[in-house]
Structures are given as C-alpha cells and as structure tokens.
Write a structure and sequence with these properties.
Blueprint lengths: L7 E4 L5 H12 L3 E6 L2 H14 L6 E5 L5 H15 L6 E4 L14 H27 L4 E6 L16 H24 L3 E8 L2 E2 L2 H8 L10 H13 L9 H17 L3 E2 H13 L4 E4 L1 H12 L7 H13 L3
Length: 321
C-alpha cells in the first residue's frame, strides 16, 4: 500500500502519542480516519488536529471504545460503517495500550487483568471485528503495536513488568502466526508487527487514568504508600521522602519519560507508515529497539541477568548516547 489517499483507517488508542500522530499524518494524506479511545478529552484534541491537517472532504470520526470489551468493539465497528458509509476498511492500527500490573505476585489482580485485557484482548477483539471489512477491501493492512517488551519481558533484571510484557509477547506471536494465515488465505491483506523502544508518549500519564487511579495531586496517603513500595522494589530508596516530594518526583518521572525520549511520537508514526509502504512485516522503532533485539538474540541465556544491562549501556555508549 504505497498511497493512503482515499483509503479508510481505523486507529485504536488514538487520544495521544503514536495513535494521535498516525491519525494526523493519515488524514493529511487524504485517508479517512476513524479513531477511538476511552479518554475522550484527549481524543477530541486528536480529531481537531487531524481535521485541520486533512484536505476538504476527508472524513475523520471519533468513537468512545474500551477495546478490552468485545461488545464495545463491535459497537465501534457498527459506528464506523454507519458514519463512514463504508463496508470496507483498508488499515487497522491496533495501537491502544496501557502500562501497569508489573508484578504478578504483588500487584492487584484487577490491575493485572485490566492491563492484559487492553494490551492483548484489544488487539484480538479488534482484529476479529474488523476482519470482514478488511477481507472485502481491495487491499488491506493490519498494524499491531507490540513493544521491545514483546521480546524482553522486563524493564531491567530487577524491575518486573509482567502484565504488559505478557500481552506484548502475545501480540508478537499472534502477528507472526497471522502473517502465514493471511499469506495462505487472504493474500491481499498484509500485517506488520511494530516493536517500539522508548518513544516520547504520555502513556505514563494516561495509564493511571485508565486504570482508575487518582491524579498525582489527588493521591491519598494510601496511594502514595503503594507507589513507595513499587519504587522501592526498583532499588530507589524512599525512606524520609515526604508526600509532597514524592508527588513531585512522580510528576517529574512521567514528564522525563515523555520529553526525554530518543524518538518522538511523530517520528515513530513516520517509521510505522514508512514500514507499511515498504510492506515490512517487522518494524523496529528506535535504535534502542534494534540494540536490544540484537542483544537478546545473541545472549538469550543472559537476557535477564545484570550483564544484559551492561551490554545495553555499552551499545548506547558506542553510539555516543
């Protein structure tokens, strides 16, 4: 699919980050766009920006949808059909995702299940729901957003990341299996697996909202003690830190994740769309993703040892980072 003009794209989790940038860039190319999210204030900003970028007559629609709920996904599909007057779509970006559920042992099951439900079942439900509309199109492309945590199941040997990593491994396996299935049974539909490294998005701000946690400034002593426990498990001492200092630390940490990333959300969206144009089934985004992919393959038995961190640091230093 070399051109996106006059195509129709569905993008989940489009309220911010890569989803928003994909919507803007596709709309600017004359591609109709149907976007969904659960945070509708964010999604309204995406739609406004996409409509401003789009040529006259390019349809851009917003839909509220929790992708972990299949009934909502099916309602989303019906709304796309009705509002776009279309029986087909050409592009499906399974982008919705949240972080959380780090420890299978220590974190609440409700949080774990919520993260896994969005990050894995959202991909599955949306692919199931929109497959008939892809099958009936002249050409189609499914883009599944996994992560470097789809081949490295932690944030470091001493930082658990189980729900997110398990979901992203599932997305990777599903996409690779779908690659063969489509080639044999629906060759006009392509599929791409996207594995981003550290991208400058607001996932660290949005995830607590989606999981039902209060904003930082509204956190209670109980909330802050829960956060203290998680930070302490990462080897960061929290004794003697006041509640206000901890709140400031959290805000700074989330801002740094977004603002100090080596790759912006817009750059990531460009890389993804370039990969679609080139029909790449495997799209690594960011040099850190390329480094880690290589290192995990070269040293699989040491992937979760402290030596892997040393290798990652050495690779970054060799690039002057």
């Amino acid at each position: 699919m070399k051109e996106f003009k006059d195509k129709l794209a569905v993008i989940t989790g489009a309220g911010t980050g890569m989803g928003r940038e994909l919507a803007i860039k596709l709309a600017a190319a004359g591609c109709g766009v149907a976007v969904c999210d659960v945070l509708m204030d964010n999604l309204a900003e995406t739609v406004e920006a996409a409509r401003k970028a789009a040529p006259d007559g390019t349809p851009v629609t917003a839909h509220e949808c929790d992708v972990s709920d299949e009934s909502q996904v099916l309602a989303f599909r019906r709304a796309v059909r009705e509002r776009h007057g279309a029986e087909t779509i050409n592009l499906l970006f399974n982008n919705a995702g949240v972080g959380g559920g780090g420890s299978f042992i220590l974190d609440p099951r409700e949080e774990w299940d919520r993260v896994f439900g969005i990050d894995w079942f959202g991909v599955y439900y949306c692919t199931r729901a929109f497959m008939p509309m892809l099958l009936s199109a002249d050409e189609g492309h499914i883009i599944n957003i996994s992560s470097i945590n789809g081949f490295w199941a932690c944030l470091g040997p001493n930082i658990e990341h189980t729900a997110y990593s398990a979901a992203k491994f599932a997305v990777k396996g599903f996409t690779e299996a779908l690659l063969v299935d489509l080639k044999l049974n629906a060759p006009h539909i392509k599929v791409s697996l996207v594995m981003p490294g550290h991208i400058g998005t607001s996932i660290s701000f949005n995830s607590p909202r989606v999981l039902g946690y209060p904003e930082v400034e509204e956190m209670t002593a109980e909330d802050l003690n829960r956060i203290r426990g998680r930070i302490a498990r990462r080897g960061i001492p929290t004794d003697g830190i006041t509640d206000e200092a901890l709140k400031s630390f959290l805000q700074q940490m989330r801002s740094d994740f977004q603002n100090n990333a080596p790759v912006s959300a817009a750059e990531a969206a460009d890389a993804i769309l370039d990969g679609v144009r080139r029909d790449q089934w495997r799209i690594l985004v960011g040099q850190d993703a390329h480094d880690l992919d290589r290192l995990v393959r070269e040293f699989p038995e040491e992937a979760y040892d402290d030596s892997m961190i040393q290798r990652i640091q050495a690779a970054a230093e060799a690039r002057g980072k």
